[in-house]
Amino acid sequence: xxxxxxxxxxxxxxxxxxxxxxxxxxxxxxxxxxxxxxxxxxxxxxxxxxxxxxxxxxxxxxxxxxxxxxxxxxxxxxxxxxxxxxxxxxxxxxxxxxxxxxxxxxxxxxxxxxxxxxxxxxxxxxxxxxxxxxxxxxxxxxxxxxxxxxxxxxxxxxxxxxxxxxxxxxxxxxxxxxxxxxxxxxxxxxxxxxxxxxxxxxxxxxxxxxxxxxxxxxxxxxxxxxxxxxxxxxxxxxxxxxxxxxxxx
Length: 249
Ligand SMILES: NC(=O)c1ccc[n+]([C@@H]2O[C@H](COP(=O)([O-])OP(=O)(O)OC[C@H]3O[C@@H](n4cnc5c(N)ncnc54)[C@H](OP(=O)(O)O)[C@@H]3O)[C@@H](O)[C@H]2O)c1
What we know:
- By secondary structure, the chain is an alpha/beta fold.
- The chain has a single domain (about 5-240), classed as Rossmann fold (3-Layer(aba) Sandwich).
- It is about 45% helix and about 15% strand.
- It has eight helices and seven strands; from the N terminus they run βαβαβαβαβααβααβ.
- It has a seven-stranded parallel β-sheet with strand order 3-2-1-4-5-6-7, sandwiched between helices.
- α4 links the parallel β4 (about 85-90) and β5 (about 135-140).
- α1 (about 15-25) packs parallel to α2, α1 crosses α8 (about 215-230) and α3 (about 65-80) runs parallel beside α4 (about 105-130).
- The chain is globular, with a radius of gyration of 17 Å.
- It binds NADP nicotinamide-adenine-dinucleotide phosphate.
């Protein structure tokens, strides 16, 4: 049987890297993208090959840029012709306080996180439609998109709330075609994104977590791999909390 084919964006570190490694161990073929860190992503790809992934490819993607999205989708069309799984993981979080958020930075965050998720997903639909069997998309939202920014700023929280709406809209639209769309909503996870914070801030945030610490990227990757598994065939339009108990609903 052919390996299932997954596109994972933002695979240079953190949750994207962990997701790539998790899916590699499950035998997926992987198309990994990076924004600026090619060398790191090539190293992740090499690890994926060692773990037993099928075909592993690496491409640049600037998810703010429609031409970059089009180039990626064309490369996947030529290389694979179809996709079973899309993980929209790439994102940015500048820790900027309210008075210092400029219009340019607001647009940068919304374009990267929310607009990128919408346009890449839409561009990948023909590839997902070419595949048969269970197909699904997982989008990375955030606790900040559900409850508002705790330390995360306004533009980031707004972009992640938009991703919840984008995901449910695609889920409803694509359900009749059997393409599932779900969100994961991590709380505080130790990755380069949260390592931007001062140590004492991370200690303060950990103290707010009922389970007592930040999560690790693998804690999120495992849930993503479960959601894209064909065993989750009846799960769509869902948001999966991974936050150590910070938000219980
Ligand atoms: N860490 C947390 O606590 C947490 C909590 C909730 C949600 N999340 C979400 O989880 C996702 C992964 O974040 P992470 O924590 O793993 O952080 P990370 O290690 O900093 O990863 C972010 C990834 O996004 C990529 N990226 C940034 N700008 C891009 C662009 N314009 N086009 C394409 N790719 C771009 C980066 O690529 P390069 O490095 O190659 O530039 C990097 O691979 C994000 O969507 C984030 O919002 C994280």
